[in-house]
Amino acid sequence: MKNIILASTSTVHGGTYLDYILPTLQEHFKHANNILFIPFARPGGITHDDYTNIVATAFKKINKTVTGLHTYPNPTEAITQAEAIFTGGGNTFVLTNQLYVNNLITPLQNAVKNGTPYLGTSAGSNICGLTIKTTNDMPIVYPPSFNALALMPFNINPHYLDPDTNSKHMGETRETRIKEFHFYNTPPVVGLREGSWLEVKGNQITLMGNLHARIFEYNKTPYEVAPKTNLSQLK
């Protein structure tokens, strides 16, 4: 049974890394002592070791240890045997490319589908959609495919931003870009605002947190859904 949390962000304004969601993660990872961390997205070009240390510091608050996937000689085996898995944010293209290069797409899919508790934030959430085509990141590397883990029956847009009516910026809004996506693609897109997350228990997908999410469906007017909304039928 799938046991997944997909958060829009790791850090909310005024907080520290994962603090806002740690009570939820304590329950989510209650049967795991060690969390396997996938650091491949490398936000800001940080080293894998430094990124893992940041994560370890956060999880120490709920008495969990963290080990970076990059330290294992056999990453496939590490994923297969993991008690729990966390994929952090950063650049979605870099993350996806590394998963393909290391032949980890299928092992990661299988582990999560078989019930290994999974946490994703930002890019780590984006890869759980059907494709990574609704990421906000620059394509600084070219992965073999834009197809993602397909653990969700839709795409995700983490860090979703509403238009700022006071801004003089005349460029595209996030909503405009998602509508451009739907000019060439049909899957729904869930716009996850910062501080929100999707909780997946088996086949049930529920919006959690205190904020609404914005839903984009092909050839439909975008609409808002409230926290605790069941999104399982969104396909």
Automatic annotation (TrEMBL):
Its EC number is 3.4.13.21. It comes from Neotamlana nanhaiensis. PANTHER family: ALPHA-ASPARTYL DIPEPTIDASE, PROTEASE S51 ALPHA-ASPARTYL DIPEPTIDASE. Belongs to the peptidase S51 family. InterPro entries: Class_I_gatase-like, Peptidase_S51. Keywords: Cytoplasm, Dipeptidase, Hydrolase, Protease, Serine protease. Its main location: cytoplasm. This is dipeptidase E. One of its GO terms (cellular component) is cytoplasm. It catalyses: Dipeptidase E catalyzes the hydrolysis of dipeptides Asp-|-Xaa. It does not act on peptides with N-terminal Glu, Asn or Gln, nor does it cleave isoaspartyl peptides. Pfam families: Peptidase_S51 (PF03575). GO terms for molecular function: dipeptidase activity; serine-type peptidase activity. It is found in: Cytoplasm.
